[in-house]
Amino acid sequence: MKFRLLSQLLCLICVASVFLIGGCIHNNIPYPRIQANFLTLDVAGQNGTTAIDTVSTTATVTFPESADIYSARVTGYTITPGAEITDNPFGSPLDLSSPVYVYLKMYDTSTLWKITGVQNIARYFEVSGQMGATVIDVPGHRIVVYVNDRTDLAAVPVVRAKLAAEGSVMTPDLSEGGTYDGRKAFTITTERFGHTDTWTVYTEVVAEAVTTVSVDAWTCVAWVNGQAEAGLDNGVEYRIAGSEQWTRVPAADVTHDGGTFKARIAHLSPQTDYETRAYSADNYGAILTFTTGQELQLPNSSFDDWWLDGRIWCPWNQDGIPYWGSGNKGAATVGSSNTVPTDDTPTGTGRAAKLETKWVVVKLAAGNIFTGDYVRTDGTNGVLSFGREFTQRPVRLQGQYKFTPAIIDHTSTDFKYLMGQPDTCIVWMALIDSPQPFEIRTNPRDRQLFNPDAPEVIAYGKMEQSDGVASWEPFDFELSYRSTSRVPRYIIVCASASKYGDYFSGGSGATLYLDDLKLVYDYR
Question: How is the chain split into domains, by residue range?
């Protein structure tokens, strides 16, 4: 009895002490620092969907020429749950001809977001006797036209002109021709939606009949840029350095844009010195020299090298340097690897990669493999680093594959419409020139997935398949390049048994077999 009373007394003292001490404690625990993000942003009249970049905190809205970018109306948006917009400007139309800045607040953390409007307007200003391309400086509203020394500058004939969006009023109206005085700076105004721009035209005389402007040397291909008077016999020729015989590029491989032209020289030898020059009728430009690049291949592109680290299959030798990554680290936290080696190969020797989509306890895990690293697991989501250092410019990716399809039986909320449809496998490749590899984040809170249309993408190509491929078959797709002069910093090759696996959507059992990847450096 005495022991029970003593115990009760001690309990009362402890409770009283907690309350007494609690009255003296201040809550100094800081709120978590969570970046507030736009998840979606819808604007009336836009093209496609808004590109959301959570790293640079930028939302880019693309408009067609017909849209009024000076009075853009936001029709809807979603942001990180729990966040709010400080001084929300979306109640009124926005002038997206220049960036609009918005603060998103989450607890005590404010994140500055930039909303940018992009309107791709076809602009041109061409004159008779023009040499090379017109320089159109959009931010400075400045135009520079180069003409030959036979042109009458007092009355320069305009062939065609368009400096603003469709439907704009040009003063003076030179849209279908006319003349202007090129002996001095000449001004043109354009007006649309109550917005007026003033353009200044400068005309300069070029004495050279033809100019070899530049060379973009790849491995088995080179691109040569030239300029001369429009309408003449303009082209490019080349030879191995030190030889005497010139070879002219076929007309089918030369593209013309007024007085500028670009020749594609194919079937060159890697790591070889060449010379090239532009020509126009009987005139020749300066000789430029260039050296072709290396014919590099991806390490372990036959997927013969693997080792088992606990439950995680790694596509490289145990003592080797990782080049390929997969989602195995994430899948194996609650299950087993779903990207594994297989002895089923096109030749019956060596190994291949087997990528299988599985339901892993609470979430779908798509079998995948990519050039890069699995960085960490974020809850039940993954953070990946896409890309390996690479500066060459192949033109195609070849390989061997098989595919066992499955019906899509798991989707995220945004992809419910895919339920019951056949799953699709995908193999894609990109060359990028961003300062760092691309970070993939699959958590919906701050999701960041690869966008083939992003500014850092130089080239992109893909192969998709939703039908079953029971025996090994070759695939071969060409890369589409945005620029022949930009040099990549990283190469990304990615394959997945489920195209929408990044959104945890796909069919359990969909299986992609992959082997013998090869980078091709020449056009057919």
Answer: 38-119, 124-206, 210-291, 307-520
